[in-house]
Amino acid sequence: MVKRTKTISHIAILTALASAIYYVESFLPMPVSVPGARWGFSNFPLLLSVVSGISVTNTLYIALLKTLLGSILSGRFLSPMFWMGLGGSLASALSMSISFKFTNKFGILGISEIGAFFSNAVQLIIASLFIVKSPNIFWYFPYMLFFGILTAFINATIVNYILRSVNLDRFKS
Amino acid sequence: MKFTKKNDLYLLLVVILLVLVMIVINAYPKKGINGAEVYLKGEKILQITKEGTYSIKNDEGELLMNVEYIDQKVRVTDSSCPLKVCENTGWVENPNQPIICIPNEIIVKPLGTEDDTGIDIYTW
């Protein structure tokens, strides 16, 4: 029972953090014009939940909930950008969990980069299949990937500092 | 949990290499364009061959954006989308670079003077 409560609070805290960042992030201007792209700082709670060792299902819950809540707050619910964000964050949660659980080869930075790569790839696949219905949108893939690398580095740094100062074993389910 | 392991650096190098290769491939066909096609939600609604400004409207007659085609270059002005990514893209003279407006689901696709090569690269 105590364990369950801890898990629920863990999910709730990280979801609140992520959706708040998702909302604030929509005010940040992008330095290059890439359609549908965002900074993606709201992925750092996901990364934190992956490396603090909570289960894959719970990480996916956080990814789903942060996109739902964040897009309702910023007024993008069910818009094309919402679907791109949902696919991207689910893909990054899944790929980060897999690379953390089943291989012991990557550090925090590597896991973050993997998440960013799959997030960008799935976002563009969703956009090309369902939204603009043209493969030409892959023209923008390298530029999104470049920003993904930068954001992934920043996210990994944030998570690294948090792990240094907070004893996350107490929250482990 | 370590911040970086050796594999992370290899991964980073591979991704950076991929980005550089794709940017070089993207920049390769630098030729002027001789027109543009406008797609709304995957359907072609307008073919631009003459110079001038064209208004793109949806089925209800609401103005979505203006497309300007002058001097073998194409750009979008006055879009109704919130972030104005399509306006900020600016002038486009590379036949492989589409101007995309995600909120309005519009693609402005420039037509090249040569055959459209290299499209296979984007469908992987």
TrEMBL record, chain A:
Residues making up the signal peptide according to the UniProt record: none
Keywords: Membrane, Transmembrane, Transmembrane helix
InterPro entries: Hpre_diP_synt_I (IPR014535), Hpre_diP_synth_I (IPR010898)
Transmembrane residue ranges: 7-24, 44-65, 77-100, 106-131, 143-163
Pfam families: Hpre_diP_synt_I (PF07456)
Name by which UniProt lists this protein: Heptaprenyl diphosphate synthase
From TrEMBL, chain B:
Family matches, as Pfam families: NusG_II
Transmembrane feature ranges: 9-28
Keyword annotations: Membrane, Transmembrane, Transmembrane helix
Protein name (Swiss-Prot/TrEMBL): Uncharacterized protein
Entry annotated with the keyword Membrane: yes
InterPro entries attached to this UniProt entry: NusG_2_sf (IPR038690)
Organism: Petrotoga mexicana DSM 14811
Keyword Transmembrane helix among record annotations: yes
